[in-house]
TrEMBL record:
Residues 226-273 form the HTH araC/xylS-type domain. Keywords: DNA-binding, Transcription, Transcription regulation. PANTHER family: HTH-TYPE TRANSCRIPTIONAL REGULATOR GADX, HTH-TYPE TRANSCRIPTIONAL REGULATOR VQSM. One of its GO terms (cellular component) is cytosol. InterPro entries: AraC-type_N (IPR032687), Homeodomain-like_sf (IPR009057), HTH_AraC (IPR018060), Tscrpt_reg_AraC-type_HTH (IPR020449). This is AraC family transcriptional regulator. It comes from the Bacteria.
Length: 278
């Protein structure tokens, strides 16, 4: 059974604060989305469909087309602050992105991110997120990756693909980044960008933050990722090594061992069973 899609409470609080700053009737919108103030407290998980409904209610209440784009500063300052410290202190762009891909499922599993060569792919998990959420995700990635490397977005990315309904295209073009329309967002890094050292690299701080992110919530995130692995294995269109890489395992053997411990069979055995005719 696949894990239910969620958005962490901290990120949801950022959405609510932005809506309030736009003069929207937050209390009414929360009620329409079936959200209670109690759900917004602490570090819990909020069902993604409720958050998506909240974004839809914001749009219906008059939020502008660029509402999601304007979320980016708040996401960096508040909801993702702890994660940003971890990513900023990594040794290189590649190391930073590896941490992001690995720990994003603790923040939200609505959007899946993978690195294929020098291209960052974004995919939906179980449903299509509201374009406000996609705008915030794409622009946050572009801006923060460039900031960490001490470069401009145009120096770090040769092209970014966005959905036709997204508003992020204009922002990216203003930043000097080429934009194309696609069925799902992806970000093409410039040659050599992945190997750039980060000016803010700090091994001691990075290890300290890494231990924090590997703490209590990591076992739940790992279990969720293995449930997702079953979904990909059953689909049968990706090599096991590729699935291991997408889930953040440096060695396929570690993925195989974790999968067998969780489900009692190897990924190959599970795939063969899943692909057999009923």
């Amino acid at each position: 059974m696949l894990a239910s899609p969620f958005v962490c409470a901290a990120l949801t609080r950022t959405l609510v604060a932005h809506a309030q700053g736009c003069g929207l009737p937050v209390d009414v919108l929360l009620q329409r989305a079936g959200l209670t103030p109690t759900q917004l407290h602490g570090h819990g998980q909020i069902p993604a469909m409720q958050v998506e409904q909240l974004l839809l209610e914001c749009e219906l209440a008059g939020a502008g087309r660029e509402f999601g784009c304007e979320l980016v500063p708040g996401m960096a300052t508040h909801s993702l602050q702890g994660l940003n410290i971890l990513l900023d202190s990594a040794a290189s762009v590649r190391d930073s992105l590896a941490c992001f891909i690995r720990y994003l499922p603790l923040v939200t599993n609505c959007v899946l991110v993978s690195l294929d060569g020098a291209q960052l792919h974004m995919r939906r998990y179980q449903h299509q997120p509201h374009y406000y959420m996609l705008d915030a995700a794409v622009l946050s990635l572009v801006r923060n990756i460039a900031r960490r490397a001490g470069r401009t977005p145009a120096q770090m990315f040769t092209q970014v693909s966005v959905l036709p309904q997204q508003a992020a295209g204009r922002w990216l073009q203003d930043w000097g980044v080429a934009v194309v329309s696609a069925q799902w967002p992806s970000l093409q890094l410039a040659p050599g960008a992945l190997e750039l050292d980060l000016p803010g690299a700090n091994a001691f701080l990075h290890q300290s933050m890494l231990r924090q992110w590997q703490g209590a919530g990591m076992s739940e995130a790992r279990e969720d990722s293995l449930q997702l692995a079953r979904h990909w294995l059953a689909a049968g269109d990706q090599p096991i090594e590729r699935i291991a890489e997408r889930l953040g395992y440096r060695q396929p053997s570690n993925f195989i061992r974790a999968f067998r411990k969780q489900f009692g069979v190897t990924p190959k055995q599970f795939r063969l069973s899943a692909l057999q005719p009923a």
